[in-house]
Amino acid sequence: MSIQVIPDTKPSHSLDADDLLPECLHDFLACPTPNAWLTWALENPEILLIDHAQCEKKAASTAMSLLYRYVDQPLLLSKMSQLAREELLHFEQVVNLMERRGVAYRHLTASRYAEGLRRHLRPQDPERLIDILIIGALIEARSCERFARLIPYLDEELARFYRTLVKSEGRHFEDYLLLARQQTDQLIDERIAFFVACEAELITSPDSAFRFHSGVPA
Ligand SMILES: [Fe+2]
Ligand SMILES: [Fe+2]
């Protein structure tokens, strides 16, 4: 496996994560990924790829479930069907990359992250859908931020792949946020702020196992 594990030295590329990340994402997330997670990721290159594959598959399936449930929303249907296709393509790309690198795909337990956010879902629509869409935006935003943080430390092939993902996950973030705001005439900024704070807590607090969306080592 050829991820370069050099967390204590200078990045292998002369790129700064901040240069890669869209401005709106900086403003949206409450905190950057802690350096301790970055070091943890570079120490676990295989789990990083396997869990990344899992996340892409999960992202496609979340989008698919919205397609089934909200058939009366044309914009949601078109955005989510496009998103599901893109996430499945990403899944395929990660799995191919794993194969080339001899990383065996195996089952991993899910991280606490998505469930830690979803447990705050309100029970009735439209509130429930608004929450699901806000959480979708957050997961896309964090994924995008983590890809950008990792890129300077990765080998050329993986860095190139992750640069394409920064672009598409950044677009997914905007789509989810647009759809969330479109569900109501009221402002949803307070609800967004609530989830942004929950997310930052999950990202900065000690976690038991390394995953793509885990907190920091316990
Ligand atoms: Fe993706
Ligand atoms: Fe995405």
In percent, how helical is the residue content?
Answer: 55-70%
Intertermini distance:
26 Å
The tally of strands reads: 2
How many distinct domains?
1
- For the report, how would you describe the main beta sheet? 2 strands, parallel
Bound molecules: fe (ii) ion
What's the CATH H-level superfamily name?
Ferritin, core subunit, four-helix bundle
Q: Which class in CATH terms?
A: Mainly Alpha
Order of H and E elements? HHHHHHHHHEE
**Structural class from helices and strands?**
mainly alpha
Main-sheet strand order equals 1-2
Strand content is under 5%
Mean pLDDT: 93
**Number of alpha- plus pi-helical segments:** 9
Which CATH-level-2 architecture?
A: Up-down Bundle
Rg computed from alpha carbons, rounded to a whole number of angstroms: 17 Å
Uncertain stretches of 5 or more adjacent residues: 5-10
CATH structural fold name: Ferritin
The shape is: globular
Please characterize this protein's 3D structure.
The chain is an all-alpha fold and 218 residues long. The chain has one domain (36-206): Up-down Bundle (Ferritin). It is built from 9 helices and 2 strands; from the N terminus they run H-H-H-H-H-H-H-H-H-E-E. The chain has a two-stranded parallel sheet with strand order 1-2. The protein binds fe (ii) ion (2 copies). One fe (ii) ion (FE2) is lined by residues 56, 59, 87, 90, 165, 169. It comes from Vreelandella arcis. Pfam families: MiaE.
